[in-house]
Amino acid sequence: MKDVLDELAAARRAMGKGSVPAGDAYTIELRRRYDAPIDDVWDALTNPERLQRWLQPVTGDLRLGGKFELDGGEHGDILRCEPPRLLKVSWLYGPDADAWPGTSEVQVRLASGPAGDTEFELVHAVVLEEPLFPIYGPGAGGVGWDLRLLALARLLAGGETVDHEAVEKSPEFVRRSAAAWGEAHLAAGGEPERVAAAIEATTRFYAPDPT
């Protein structure tokens, strides 16, 4: 578990505001460094065989303007693709695309570091209706991205594939991740009482008390 917690600590988190075609959006932002060259990180983001090892199996027309679908039901369009530095996609949930039209986008930027490493930035902008965001705060999506970037770190280091389900159900991982997103929420001006309630709700959602 120590290496998992070290990976959590390696990321810088922020919450902000942005826009998507549907209107104003909340953003969750993750920045970190990977000890791998930029071409390797880009390949891990765009090669379907490697994507399934840290994200999910993906199908579709994987080119600019094409559509993709993940095994978990997330799907969307490839909006920008500028190898090896920028990838932007729409990110929709569930089988009914009309229910959430244009409500979510994910953008990843890469930059070469001074030692042959890579600076990684992910921004997920999403329109959330009441009461989802007030209840869960940025941890609603942030905990999931923390898990995926842990798996990406393992892949880039040549390690084993992460058991997403096992880590996601770890109370310690979920608690630490939800708390880290709570700190980002506070830094963005969240009210302490509402932030504390959101941390608790997110922790319960990802790792419910077995009793």
Keywords:
211 residues, alpha+beta, eight-stranded antiparallel sheet, 8 helices
Structural description of this entry:
The protein has 211 residues and is α+β, with helices and mostly antiparallel strands. Helix content is 40%, strand content 28%. It has helices at residues 2-10, 38-46, 48-54, 132-136, 139-156, 164-168, 171-187, 192-206; strands spanning 12-20, 23-34, 58-60, 67-70, 75-82, 86-90, 104-112, 118-126. An 8-stranded antiparallel beta sheet has the order 1-2-8-7-6-5-4-3. The protein starts with a helix and ends in a 5-residue tail after the last helix. The mean pLDDT is 88.
Unreliable spans are: none
Structural class: alpha+beta
Distance between the termini: 23 Å
Q: What gyration radius follows from the Cα positions, in whole Å?
A: 17 Å
- Give a short account of the largest sheet: 8 strands, antiparallel
- Helix content estimate: 40-55%
Helix/strand order: HEEHHEEEEEEHHHHH
Global shape: globular
- Percentage of β-strand residues: 25-35%
Q: How many H/I helices?
A: 8
Strand order of the largest sheet: 1-2-8-7-6-5-4-3
**Integer average pLDDT:** 88
Total strands: 8
Outline of the structure:
With 211 residues, the protein is α+β, with helices and mostly antiparallel strands.
Structural topology:
Blueprint: H1 2-10, E1 12-20, E2 23-34, H2 38-46, H3 48-54, E3 58-60, E4 67-70, E5 75-82, E6 86-90, E7 104-112, E8 118-126, H4 132-136, H5 139-156, H6 164-168, H7 171-187, H8 192-206
Antiparallel strand pairs: 1-2, 2-8, 3-4, 4-5, 5-6, 6-7, 7-8
Helix pairs in contact: 2-3, 5-7, 7-8
